[in-house]
């Protein structure tokens, strides 16, 4: 676990051992925000030790490396799940919730490294579908735990991708903006043209001093991704 | 359109290849058939033939020919 302290707010980062995706947690009193949950005993233990009873779950997008642990939070806390409408349609569909990319990536890694991660993941993975409690189409402003939260739809990596900006200080970008991983815009549900023509201008309209918490990799200042006045994005 | 024509069309569109390049084609032999392309290919095959493939079959789908063998298990007949 790694923690960040930004504008009086602690943000905890937990990395999913199978696909290196990030889960982030913010705790305030008996409430917590959990972004892109995966199963992590340490995180559950920390929330319980701090007396948390209510959890707000936010999803940056619908891919299973960012949703696979929703159930564990539902089992332990009173949860409210918030995501973009297309993301909500995806996570309630058993067919689209299959963790195919995780399976395939782990099989490749096992083949190359002689590990047995796929089998371990299969044993641990609990298939689930979810119904979002709150969805939105384009954007939504909410005050949660005293924090100003802005959800904004940014399609391209997936149909239901969004950014989550908190207190105009930091932003959770999922797999739509990362500084040490390329942006994938050719998954089923991806749309490269939409990413370039619609999403990129939205990302470039954000304050360059925002601290970015990506879906994979570590946090960074948005300005560090600028080159010649534009966001420098690598695609895959 | 026959099942073979549909199958070829999925491969050609997903991997941006012409039909003459399909015979003998294996996973990672072309740039677009990487792990991401594989997911797109699987999704397109499932949509085209209205099937839901088992995980082990998705992992085993390592070539153009192997894909036909696997789809036959889902009652997709390539000899029609």
Q: Could you explain the architecture of this structure?
A:
The complex is a heterodimer of chains A (about 240) and B (about 80). With about 240 residues, chain A is of the alpha/beta class. In chain A, helix 4 packs antiparallel against helix 5. In chain B, about 55% of the residues lie in helices and about 0% in strands. The interface between A and B is medium-sized, with 15 and 15 residues.
Highlighted features:
heterodimer; A: 236 residues; alpha/beta; seven-stranded mixed sheet; six-stranded mixed sheet; 15 strands; 25% helix; globular; B: 80 residues; mainly alpha; 4 helices
Structural class of chain A: alpha/beta
Q: Percent helix among the residues of chain B? A: 40-55%
Mean pLDDT of chain A: 95
Poorly predicted tracts of residues of chain B:
none
Unreliable spans of chain A are none
- Give the largest interface: A-B, 15 and 15 residues
Strand order of the largest sheet of chain A: 1-2-3-4-5-6-7
In short:
Chain A has 236 residues and is of the alpha/beta class. Helices cover 25% and strands 31% of the residues of chain A. Chain A has a 7-stranded mixed beta sheet with strand order 1-2-3-4-5-6-7.
Write the layout of secondary structure elements.
The complex is a heterodimer of chains A (236) and B (80).
Chain A: E1 2-6, E2 9-15, E3 22-28, E4 31-35, H1 41-49, E5 54-58, H2 70-76, E6 78-84, H3 85-91, H4 100-113, H5 117-124, E7 134-136, E8 139-144, E9 147-153, E10 162-166, E11 170-174, H6 192-204, E12 211-214, E13 220-221, E14 226-227, E15 230-231
Chain B: H1 3-15, H2 35-49, H3 55-60, H4 64-72
């Amino acid at each position: 676990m790694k923690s960040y302290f930004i504008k009086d707010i602690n943000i905890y980062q937990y990395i999913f051992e199978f696909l290196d995706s990030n889960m982030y947690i913010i705790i305030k009193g008996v409430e917590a925000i959990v972004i892109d949950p995966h199963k992590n005993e340490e995180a559950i233990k920390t929330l319980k030790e701090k007396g948390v009873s209510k959890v707000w779950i936010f999803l940056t997008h619908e891919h299973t490396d960012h949703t696979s642990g929703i159930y564990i939070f539902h089992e332990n806390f009173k949860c409210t799940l918030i995501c973009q409408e297309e993301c909500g349609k995806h996570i309630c569909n058993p067919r689209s919730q299959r963790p195919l990319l995780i399976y395939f990536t782990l099989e490749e890694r096992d083949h190359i490294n002689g590990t047995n991660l796929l089998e371990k993941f299969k044993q641990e993975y609990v298939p689930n579908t979810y119904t979002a409690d709150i969805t939105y189409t384009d954007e939504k402003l909410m005050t949660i735990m005293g924090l100003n939260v802005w959800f904004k739809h940014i399609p391209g990596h997936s149909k239901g991708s969004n950014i989550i900006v908190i207190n105009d200080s930091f932003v959770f970008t999922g797999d739509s903006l990362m500084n040490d991983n390329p942006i994938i815009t050719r998954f089923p549900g991806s749309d490269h043209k939409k990413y370039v023509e619609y999403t990129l201008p939205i990302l470039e309209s954000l304050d360059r001093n925002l601290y970015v918490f990506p879906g994979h990799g570590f946090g960074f200042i948005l300005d560090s991704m600028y080159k010649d006045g534009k966001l420098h994005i690598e695609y895959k | 359109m026959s099942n073979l024509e549909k199958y070829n069309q999925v491969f050609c569109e997903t991997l941006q290849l012409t039909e003459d390049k399909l015979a003998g084609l294996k996973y990672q032999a072309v740039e677009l058939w990487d792990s991401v392309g594989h997911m797109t290919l699987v999704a397109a095959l499932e949509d085209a033939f209205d099937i839901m493939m088992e995980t082990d079959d998705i992992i085993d789908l390592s070539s153009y020919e192997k894909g036909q063998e696997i789809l036959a298990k889902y009652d997709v007949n390539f000899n029609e």
